[in-house]
Amino acid sequence: MVKIRLMGKKEDMHEMIKKLYQIKDIEIMEISDFYTNKGTSKYGRIYMEVETRK
To answer: Read out DSSP for 2-37?
Structure first.
């Protein structure tokens, strides 16, 4: 299992997650909610857990 932290605008991260779902060699196990960064409402982070498909 690998843990990934995505940081950026909410819309951009959701587009990236859609693309990650299309990769046949990985399986997304878990995705967190969107957390806003301190000091800005424009940027935030999402945490993911992924595994290699067997």
So the answer is: EEEEEEEEHHHHHHHHHHHHT-TTEEEEEE---EEP
Look at residue 23 and give its three-state secondary structure: coil
6 vs 38: CA distance, rounded Å: 15
Tokens of 24: 């046949």
How far apart (Å, rounded) are the C-alpha atoms in residues 20 and 34?
A: 17
Residue type, 5: R
Q: Does domain 2-52 have CATH number 3.30.1490?
A: yes
- Those residues of the chain that have pLDDT short of 70 are none
DSSP 8-state assignment for residue 42 = S
Are β-strands 35-36 and 43-52 bridged in parallel, bridged antiparallel, or unpaired? antiparallel
pTM over 0.90? The answer is: no
